[in-house]
Amino acid sequence: MAAYGLPRTTLDLDLVVDGACQDELVRRMEELGYETLYRSAGYSNHTSPEPRMGSVDFIYVRGQTAEAVFGLVREVPGPGDRPVPVVSPDHLAAMKVLAMKNDPSRAFQELGDIRHLITAAGADRQEVRLQMIRHGLEERYRELEATL
HEC states along 64-79? Predict the structure, then answer.
């Protein structure tokens, strides 16, 4: 979100990765001392007993989804001016749609983020609308659209 002009303090790192590396990635996180809190085909959540190491969430994409997401990644300057790859605003919004669908208590925060993302340069508002409809959140999209 910071790459799109909406920084905020969070307590975890979210990474989108190719699902083909899930087993190896989870194994490596556990070797580094992280505990796997949750794991499914699409997500895994890991936390470290070291507070300074924080938590890491992985979102796994495969096939055409992976091609679409990684094909539109852009780099933005990160800490120490190191390039940080960032997904497109549409794909980030789609991830937030899924987060909201899976945990409706996140709706307030996720809608604010989605609102910001659909106004970002290069965002496809229609694609985000279709994602929300596809996941049964058409009414939420109408609420969002009314605020624009």
Answer: HHHHHHHHCCEEEECH
Locate 81 and state its tokens.
Answer: 């001016």
Task: Answer yes or no: CATH 3.30.720.120 is held by domain 12-85.
Answer: yes
Residue whose entry in the numeric block shows the structure tokens 């895994």: 44
* Cα distances (Å, whole numbers) of residue 123 to 25, 78, 94, 135: 31, 21, 12, 19
pTM: 0.83
pLDDT digit string, tens, across residues 15-51: 999 999 999 999 999 999 999 999 999 999 999 999 8
Residues 6+ apart with CB under 8 A from 127: 90, 94
**DSSP assignment string, 25-94:** HHHHHHHTT-EEEEE-SSEEEEE-SSGGG-EEEEEEE-HHHHHHHHHT-EEEE-GGG-EEEE--HHHHHH
Cα(91)–Cα(106) distance, rounded to whole angstroms? 18
The residue behind tokens 């989804």 is 65
Write down the domain spans for the chain: 12-85, 88-148
Q: What gap in Å lies between CA 115 and CA 125, rounded to an integer?
A: 10
